[in-house]
């Protein structure tokens, strides 16, 4: 009867994030523990530090997640773009993780809502990486060809799902009676598959990079991690460690400082080995395990202007960033605003614009901390032409500039 009732894209996004979270919690129990500890840290922190809410309401921050996925080809990336378009998530920024100190053979963007009111409704974002198959420093020509053939033969998404997503994105909403099914189908595209994995092929790609094997060694994709947000990541780190969950990393990103939180701080723990099935050379299928998925948590601060970002990069390049920090950053929101180092709505230091993106060095660190072996660059010079312009062309849609979005958020409340 209620055929006219429509679900707007932001509600679809909220349902998508919640359903992915439920699925991932069932797949990775440590994630459920992390979410519980995060919620407790947030409630305690907000009770004692009412001003923390200037970076987001307790409800928003406690519900907030980012995910990470990895795909193989421009075609797959385009399908992701269409699918996420139905959830009001658009590609923002270009990250080239091949350039990190520990290179990873991917280029990435983040799909997220962009308008401040959409972010306030539900800020779900997904860090999305594509295998840099064309970079000969990782893949020699023969392997490039075989990876390409393997990827061309697979379909990550049902064409019907993609067609439906295209329609929803164009309309800006979805009929109520088809919404649940649409969200469920989108979620299941990111479930861990129990299809047997070709062991020889997976091992060959693992020798290049564990990330290459995770992307192109299997016929499906999966959510790699889902990350809750906390107000106080140092406290989270202590509580998780006290529970005996080994946090493998120091905290990535800015050091803990007494002044305003800036950008993004993250830490992760290594998930347990997950059961997978392998098809061996002799044709037998046997049980095995893979350790590719993990847990991560993050804290967000104010977005920095290009000038602030230069200061950040300089502080982080120091031998001891925490000690160097005060030479680069003032200690109050007012000074950050007045010196135009960070974005505040209307320049008002009580209204910070939250950083909604990622940091390339941290992202590479997150990838790396969860791999057994480092990737070594092979000989040859890169003629792949990957760049933000290339990625925008591959996506068939504009890659949005994070700074332009922050500027806009700072000017119109
Ligand atoms: C993505 C790693 C980057 C982050 O939060 O910086 C990332 C991946 O492992 O696929 O998620
Ligand atoms: Ni992440």
Automatic annotation (TrEMBL):
InterPro entries: HGLS, YdcJ_bac-like. CDD domains: VOC_YdcJ_like (cd16348). It holds the Pfam family HGLS. It comes from the Bacteria. Its EC number is 1.13.11.93. Gene3D superfamilies: Uncharacterised protein PF07063, DUF1338. SMART domains: DUF1338. Keywords: Dioxygenase, Iron, Oxidoreductase. Its cofactor is Fe(2+). Belongs to the 2-oxoadipate dioxygenase/decarboxylase family. PANTHER family: 2-OXOADIPATE DIOXYGENASE_DECARBOXYLASE, PTHR39479. This is 2-oxoadipate dioxygenase/decarboxylase. The lineage of its organism: Bacteria, Bacillati, Actinomycetota, Actinomycetes, Mycobacteriales.
């Amino acid at each position: 009867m209620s055929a006219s009732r429509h679900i707007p894209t932001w509600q679809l996004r909220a349902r998508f994030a919640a359903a992915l979270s439920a699925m991932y919690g069932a797949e990775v129990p440590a994630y459920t523990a992390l979410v519980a500890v995060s919620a407790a840290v947030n409630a305690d922190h907000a009770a004692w530090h009412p001003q923390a809410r200037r970076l987001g309401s307790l409800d928003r921050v406690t519900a907030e997640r980012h995910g990470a996925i990895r795909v193989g080809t421009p075609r797959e990336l385009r399908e992701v773009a269409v699918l996420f378009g139905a959830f009001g998530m658009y590609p923002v920024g270009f990250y080239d993780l091949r350039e990190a100190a520990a290179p990873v053979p991917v280029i990435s963007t983040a799909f997220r809502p962009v308008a401040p009111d959409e972010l306030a409704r539900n800020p779900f974002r997904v860090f999305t990486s594509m295998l840099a198959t064309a970079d000969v420093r990782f893949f020699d020509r023969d392997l490039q060809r075989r990876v390409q053939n393997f990827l061309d033969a697979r379909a990550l998404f049902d064409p019907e799902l993609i067609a439906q997503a295209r329609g929803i994105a164009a309309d800006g909403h979805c009929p109520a009676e088809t919404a649940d099914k649409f969200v469920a189908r989108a979620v299941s595209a990111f479930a861990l598959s129990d299809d047997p994995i070709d062991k020889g092929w997976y091992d060959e790609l693992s020798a290049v990079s564990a990330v290459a094997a995770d992307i192109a060694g299997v016929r499906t994709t999966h959510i790699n991690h889902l990350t809750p947000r906390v107000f106080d990541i140092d406290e989270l780190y202590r509580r998780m460690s006290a529970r005996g969950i080994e946090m493998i990393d120091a905290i990535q990103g800015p050091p803990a400082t007494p002044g305003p939180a800036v950008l993004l701080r993250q830490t992760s723990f290594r998930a347990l080995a997950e059961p997978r099935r392998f098809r061996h050379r002799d044709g037998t299928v046997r049980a095995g395990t893979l350790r590719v998925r993990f847990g991560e948590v993050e804290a967000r601060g104010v977005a920095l202007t290009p000038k602030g970002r230069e200061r950040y990069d300089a502080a982080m390049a120091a031998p001891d960033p925490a000690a160097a920090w005060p030479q680069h950053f003032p200690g109050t929101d007012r000074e950050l605003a007045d010196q135009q180092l960070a974005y505040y709505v209307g320049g008002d230091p009580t209204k910070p614009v939250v950083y909604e993106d990622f940091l390339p060095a941290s992202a590479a660190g997150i990838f790396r901390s969860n791999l057994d072996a480092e990737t070594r660059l092979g000989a040859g010079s890169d003629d792949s032409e990957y760049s933000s312009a290339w990625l925008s062309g591959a996506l068939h849609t504009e890659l949005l500039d994070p700074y332009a979005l922050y500027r806009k958020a700072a000017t119109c409340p």
